[in-house]
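hiii so um. not sure if this is the right channel but i have a protein structure encoded as tokens and i wanna go backwards to a sequence. like what aa goes where. can anyone help
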């Protein structure tokens, strides 16, 4: 398999963590690229020019991080990250993490192209409110929760999103305002798969 990615995409990091947790790292060739530079090889694999993009053993290209994660979960015999037992809860948490990731990522991209003043526009304010609501809900739901073993896709999604907030939007001081959520996240990100894929 072949995976197109870069080091600062939270979506690509999610897939890398899934690869490690599922024991598939050696089965995938990493193709590091800049999706903003219209990388010709990436565009051939995924005309949308977005990462991550995975080319399977059969030459089929998969895009969107959660769809790639579902595929990888199915092709590895390791314990499932999307188990049928508790499926609703896992997908619920995955959705919360994905929504937080999207709000943070879109804030970063909007600032990159239009400057920080874009935060004061209607969409910028909407994203900011969404981030705060999501953090409040995550703090409420995960503050007393023990990390799962094996880890689930929901936990990966949330932990990556929280790390991305700290990496790109440090002014969102979620750790100071959510000490129990910080403790939960620290337990998840202590895993080797998170340590080896840390944002830099």
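sure thing!! here u go:
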């Amino acid at each position: 398999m072949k995976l197109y990615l870069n080091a600062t995409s939270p979506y690509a990091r999610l897939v890398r963590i899934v690869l490690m947790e599922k024991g598939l790292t050696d089965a995938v060739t990493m193709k590091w690229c800049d999706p903003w530079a219209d990388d010709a090889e990436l565009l051939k694999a995924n005309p949308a020019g977005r990462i991550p993009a995975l080319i399977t053993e059969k030459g089929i290209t998969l895009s969107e991080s959660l769809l790639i994660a579902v595929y990888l979960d199915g092709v590895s015999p390791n314990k499932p990250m999307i188990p049928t037992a508790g499926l609703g809860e896992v997908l619920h948490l995955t959705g919360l993490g994905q929504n937080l990731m999207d709000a943070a990522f879109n804030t970063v991209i909007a600032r990159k192209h239009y400057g920080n003043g874009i935060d004061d526009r209607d969409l910028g304010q909407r994203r900011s409110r969404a981030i705060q609501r999501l953090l409040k809900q995550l703090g409420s739901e995960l503050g007393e929760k023990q990390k799962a073993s094996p880890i689930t896709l929901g936990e990966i999604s949330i932990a990556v999103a929280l790390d991305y907030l700290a990496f790109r939007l440090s002014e969102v001081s979620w750790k100071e305002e959510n000490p129990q959520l910080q403790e939960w996240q620290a337990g998840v990100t202590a895993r080797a798969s998170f340590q080896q894929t840390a944002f830099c």
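oh and Strands lie at 2-5, 29-32, 53-55, 61-63.
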